[in-house]
Amino acid sequence: MPTEHIKVDALVVGGGIAGMQTALDLGDQGYQVALVERQSSIGGKMIDLSKVFPTLDCCSCITTPKMSATAHHDNINLLTYSEIESINRNGNGFTVQVTKKPRYVREDDCTGCRSCELVCPLEVSEDEHEFGRTSHRIVYVPFSTAVPQKAVVDIDNCIFCGKCIQACPSDAIDFTQQPEPVEIETRSIVLATGFETTPIDAKKEYGAGKLRNVISGMMMERLLAPTGPYGRVLRPSDGKMPASIAYVQCAGSRDQTLGVTYCSRVCCMYAIKQAMLLSGALPLAEITIYYMDIRTFGKGYEQFYQNAKAMGVEFLKGKVARITEDADQNPIVRVELIDEFGKTRVTERQHDLVVLSVGLLPGGNPQAKFGVPVGEDGFIQVPDYNVFPAVTSQPGIFVTGTALGPMDIVDSIMMAGAAASATASYLESSNGSGKEAQSQPERSVEYA
Ligand SMILES: Cc1cc2nc3c(=O)[nH]c(=O)nc-3n(C[C@H](O)[C@H](O)[C@H](O)COP(=O)(O)OP(=O)(O)OC[C@H]3O[C@@H](n4cnc5c(N)ncnc54)[C@H](O)[C@@H]3O)c2cc1C
Ligand code: SF4
Ligand code: SF4
């Protein structure tokens, strides 16, 4: 298969909010950008969230226009469902080998009409976004606001019955598709590879992922989202509307036993946000947040916390030692409560549903592929964080968003601006070679 060649000023790796915003900022300044995303749609974790703190704006309403603007920008070449294979330094820039994974659907022909989905006879569990609570057909458009709005075939489970081929009005299904090599020549790289959440089964004291009514913060996001699996908050074991919901803070962060010693920064705020949303969705439910410290550091965040208290959310200071369940699968929380005078008391409380406020881990190890050092926490390390937070130790390679460390959406967007600005300034002043340019550098506009 012939290799497609793309020549750009900047390659952005990762199409979450940080990567999209960096690509948009650079594209708006006239730079040619390639954005490589390994998933079949851009959007990152943000597309799975319900509403955002502290404004409680609909997350989809903020993310979808950014996804669309990224995909339709004249200066952004979007490659989804694509993996970076290797990066080699080459004179003033980098040569990057990318593999476009086969969708078994021709992107140029697919209109996203979903006729194929309707006739496909098989379905499999939807694990990527819905934690197995719903299913999707073998050929499917990943979600209703996916960008690009193109189908993809789960080839491992396909029985090749051919029904989708017959149903597709655009003749887009193509089972002969192979992985396509793409070579990107770029003068700079921005890493926006994001985060993963700490695993729900990491702590055996909290049930090791086996208690059905102990879920993660991300699972609760999906239950609260208008696009979620049930359209309402139901507990997993029996579909009952929970009357008592508890949050366990720092369930994956600030924990030596898990090797995650840092604060994940967003968990206090997302737990408070979810508690407020639950107060609206289930007005009679009692909501308790067990915490070690509440960290509401951002603009308007402390007021958000005070509002949650005023709405009746119960905040109890204490460390949860253990979660078990009774015969009806109601979680029992054993906690050492600390009163305002520092006196401790161990107690057990039963709830209908417990949410673990899981923390943030780096989205993979960027050291091997991108040659950038990582800190003890596994996130990308920059030599001068206070002065140049987006500049890595590798000339021409920049970092943005949660690839750098835990941060919320506001900070990810601000970091995107910082990364775009550092990249632009590098491209203008050094011509990508690390040396002062004698004259204004030319911008690459051609696609070979
Ligand atoms: C439960 C929960 C609730 C939250 N609620 C809020 C909230 O209400 N308000 C708020 O401000 N913040 C909230 N956050 C934090 C918010 O999700 C993050 O700040 C934001 O999503 C970070 O965006 P990002 O682009 O850095 O990373 P991501 O969203 O993780 O995007 C990274 C992208 O890079 C891709 N990628 C990774 N590696 C590669 C690679 N090698 N090649 C190609 N692509 C790659 C990934 O597939 C992904 O699409 C919440 C977090 C959680 C866990
Ligand atoms: S060929 Fe595969 S994807 Fe197409 S309808 Fe049959 S099972 Fe579904
Ligand atoms: S593959 Fe064909 S039937 Fe399926 S969404 Fe695309 S255009 Fe529609």
Q: Give the proportion of residues in helices.
A: 10-25%
What CATH calls the topology of the largest domain is FAD/NAD(P)-binding domain
Beta fraction:
25-35%
Small ligands present: flavin-adenine dinucleotide, iron/sulfur cluster
Main CATH class of the largest domain: Alpha Beta
Whole-number total of structural domains:
3
Quaternary structure annotation: single chain
The description of the largest β-sheet is: 7 strands, mixed
Radius of gyration: 24 Å
Number of strands: 22
Task: Assign the structural class, choosing from mainly alpha, mainly beta, alpha/beta, alpha+beta, or little secondary structure.
Answer: alpha/beta
Low-confidence stretches: 434-448
Count of DSSP H/I helices:
9
The CATH superfamily of the largest domain turns out to be: FAD/NAD(P)-binding domain
CATH architecture of the largest domain: 3-Layer(bba) Sandwich
Q: What is the overall shape?
A: globular
Report the average pLDDT across residues: 93
Alpha-carbon distance between the termini?
A: 16 Å
